[in-house]
Amino acid sequence: MDRCIKSDHGWFSGRKADSVSVVVTVQSGFDLDYYNAGVDKEPERSPGGYYINANVRGEAAGRLFGAGSLILGLCGAVDAAQFRQVYSLVDPRTGAHLGAARRDYSRSYEARLAQLRAAEHHATADRAHQLEHQARQDTRQTPAYTDVTVNFSKSISLLHGSIRENAARARDEGDPVAAAWWDTRDTRFCEILQQANTTAMAHLQMWAGVTRTGYHGRLVNGRELGKWEPAELVGTSWLQSTSRDGEMHDHIHNPVLPRVRTLSDGKWRATDTMAIRRQIPAIQATAAAYVEAALSREFGVQWVPRPDGMGSEIRGITQQEIDAFSSRRNSVTAKQAELAEQFRSKYGRAPNQRENLSIHRTAWAATANPSQTARSTSTRPRANGARNGRVNSARH
User: Fold this and answer.
1) Average pLDDT of 180-196?
2) Which residues contact 125 (CB under 8 A, 6 or more apart)?
3) DSSP state, residue 7
């Protein structure tokens, strides 16, 4: 996910799961220029804007984690202004820079952009934007954060979605008591997901809260001269209930700041991202153990391994129902593959990242059902498959 999160909303991308209900991915986020101008860009064009605007669209407010957040005077819900300031590596209390400044690759970007523009003097405004994106892809960039994404299995998302659907139907039927009951269940469900993630991030702080000091470039008597010192992480957590494609998908983004506060001397140094990546299996197991136990205890669910071995699902929610709520994604994927093949036949090469985004948007529009689009303006989609005979049992 070489921008915000390249595969953040993909199901079980990355390391293969071992019969757990949670899969964790770790990817880097870039595009600092978009970050600096985030207020004028689309949400997904800015590392900060993506998370902040999810909250604006109705998702849960971000939560701070990591011992370093407390050092910066941050706690509780995320403030948008402070969020952008901290992820620009600025201390919100003093305005001082947090550690060494990011390397500036703007000159190489500008040179590459000038080269691309020179080759296409008559580029349209849309093409000019594509050239800017291509120049960013072709030049080196410094990550703005490392995103640790906790993805909950599809059946968890369907169960959660059907709880919300029950609340909506109760309101439609004029039953405020029932609606309030389901809303309480929804709140508790969200809190279980948040607590599972909080437990996983506490593990991350304990085992990946380190920074490298000294020189690690060579070995003496088989050992590195540098050290790994304990440090305090800074991160935020963002619970989201839908994917970018609009499908039910409970997941939590945890963008970790690329700076940590060293315990020994209080200096801000680089985050050891390899230490974070090594903890993927443990983070995954920690979150899965918590969410499975909590949902079993409070919602009475049972778990069964997926047939493909990539995670566990809630017993009683069938694969057919899971596929039914992923049909939109499947149709888009098939159409996108078709368009990508047409592109390769026409231009003799594979599409780049920007062109793939354009192909995806074309596929999304091409596979849309006009009648469903029209009905959506007046009728809320119903989660019948996940609701009938399953979520009602959570009321007992």
Assistant:
1) 95
2) none
3) T
- Tell me the per-residue pLDDT of 369-388, one tens digit each, with 9 for 90 and over: 443 333 333 333 333 333 44
CA distance 34 to 19: 39
CB distance 288 to 231 below 8 Å: no
Q: Are 14 and 201 in contact (CB under 8 A)?
A: no
Taking the CB of residue 79, how many other CB atoms lie within 10 A of it? 16
Stretch (H or E) spanning 146: strand 145-152
Which residues share a beta bridge with 270?
A: 259
- Provide the edge-to-edge strand list for the sheet that holds 248-256: 22-29, 145-152, 248-256, 235-242, 63-65
Task: Classify strands 63-65 and 235-242 as parallel, antiparallel or unpaired.
Answer: antiparallel
Phi, psi (rounded to 5 degrees) for 318: -80, 165
Please measure the distance between the N-terminal and C-terminal CA atoms of the chain and give it in whole angstroms: 42
User: Is 178 in contact with 47 (CB distance < 8 Å)?
Assistant: no
